[in-house]
Design goal:
The protein is 34% helix and 25% strand. With 440 residues, it is α/β, with parallel strands linked by helices. The termini are far apart.
Length: 440
């Protein structure tokens, strides 16, 4: 490499905080014998962050090894990279991978430097002669539309199908990188032993300087309180969390087609209802929409952030796509079953024209609501990322002395969206009628 290129490489090692994962990843990217890089890891392992940092370095250096048939050696040649980072939705990419890439850009190109190296247009960034873009790829049709790329980064690959991976892989001229959390075994594990595949398991200890103290405390606490969780999300090993409330969740592409109640036919989705679990402080407000279709309960996540004030409630409803209840056909005439506190939020919704109803609560309300959900069978849309995380972590309590799962008592965490769903299915009498017809 030239002195200028060497200087860029050294600069890349200075900021942000780097470690062994970044250097290992950069070596794999420059290894011409590797086609696919598989990164498995637990929570706070820094997988995505390190990938985006290494890709930026690649773009800055602008060189890549090419085989010289005359000399029989690999030689560095100038290279302009065409890179795409893909996920199920653009929203999840913007909140994760694209945000991480922005952190790297800010470190290298602080305010006041030439913007010719940091141009953004429609989720595309230009660095030197290379470019990277962030694109939603929810299915094989969109994967095929991505076109030929030098490098593809498939973020949270366990949320994608093998068909989507294959469609991207055959269009990748150089390297493909995938990362995922190992909550269960998935299609990526079948690729590990191939000769052109590099496989790594990272965990929070590889990224410990960047883990927030409160997150680190929770991970370390799980060593003694939840060994199986610590094995999977702490250490990054493949496993199945014991004591899950819902083990057989089906993830679907989208909700069934909405048909107004008066126009519904026998085979149309029925029971369209909304559920809301308020989050005033650090806890998120969870808004869901659900229905019954072909005997199964379908649900999608509409909102998942705290609402500390009444003004935030109005904003949340708009972001969830539920604004102007008098004109929106998806909202008009449908009930919203809400957490009973704060009452001011429910009153405010009714003032706006929504049919907001206090959810049923009582000694057996949790068990009853979960039983209804389980009897139908649960289908969650693939775009409901927080719902998927809750489903993979919502557990029954465990007797600490015997280690036995207490099936009647759930842990009070990873349950905001499930609480909202319980309120909806327990409150709307149509669900009970649908449940009875299902069991005839």
């Amino acid at each position: 490499m030239s002195n200028k290129e060497t200087e860029q490489y050294e600069l890349a090692e200075l900021a942000p905080e780097l470690g062994e994962c970044y250097r290992d990843l950069l070596n794999m990217l420059y290894d011409p014998t590797i086609k696919l890089i598989i990164l498995q890891g637990g929570t706070s392992a820094g997988k995505t962050f390190n990938v985006l940092g290494a890709l930026l370095t690649l773009m800055q250096l602008g060189v890549y090894p090419e085989y010289n048939e005359v000399t029989g050696l690999w030689e560095y040649k100038p290279k302009q990279f065409k890179i795409v980072a893909v996920g199920v939705t653009l929203g999840s990419l913007k909140e994760g991978a694209e945000q991480d890439f922005g952190a790297w850009l800010s470190a290298f190109y602080p305010e006041g430097t030439s913007k010719s190296q940091n141009n953004k247009s429609r989720n595309r960034y230009l660095v030197g002669g290379s470019n990277i873009r962030f694109a939603a790829v929810p299915d094989t049709k969109r994967a095929k539309a991505i076109g030929k790329q030098d490098i593809v980064f498939m973020n949270e690959a366990n949320e994608q199908t093998f068909a989507v991976f294959s469609a991207l892989y055959i269009r990748t001229k150089g390297k493909m990188i995938i990362d995922f959390n190992p909550d269960t075994e998935n299609w990526a594990h079948a690729l590990i032993d191939a000769p052109d595949v590099a496989f790594r398991i990272w965990n929070y200890t590889h990224n410990i300087k960047n883990v927030a103290p409160n997150i680190l405390e929770k991970i370390e606490e799980a060593k003694t309180t939840d060994a199986e969780w610590y094995k999977v999300y702490g250490l990054g090993f493949t496993g199945q969390i014991e004591g899950l409330v819902f083990k057989d969740v089906e993830y679907v592409e989208e909700m069934p087609a909405y048909v107004p109640r008066k126009l519904q036919k026998k085979d149309d989705a029925k029971g369209w209802t909304y559920g809301i679990d308020w989050g005033e402080n650090k806890d998120p407000t969870a808004i869901v929409r659900c229905c019954v279709y072909q005997g199964k309960l379908y649900v999608e996540e509409l909102y998942y952030k705290p609402t500390p004030s009444i003004n935030a409630v109005s904003e949340a409803l708009n972001i969830a796509g539920l604004g102007d209840p008098k004109k929106n056909p998806r909202v008009l005439g449908h009930d919203f079953y809400c957490d009973i506190t704060p009452t001011a939020f429910i009153n405010y919704m009714n003032d706006l024209g929504y049919f907001a109803i206090k959810a049923k609560k009582g000694q057996h309300s949790v068990t009853a609501g979960l039983s209804i959900i389980r009897t139908f069978g649960l289908c969650i849309t693939k775009t409901s990322h927080n719902f998927k995380k809750e489903a993979q972590n919502y557990k029954y309590k465990t007797n600490r002395q015997t280690g036995v799962t207490m099936e009647g008592e759930t842990e009070d965490k990873f349950n905001h969206l499930f609480d909202a769903l319980r309120y909806a299915v327990s409150g709307n009498p149509e669900f009970r009628a649908l449940l009875l017809s299902k069991n005839k």
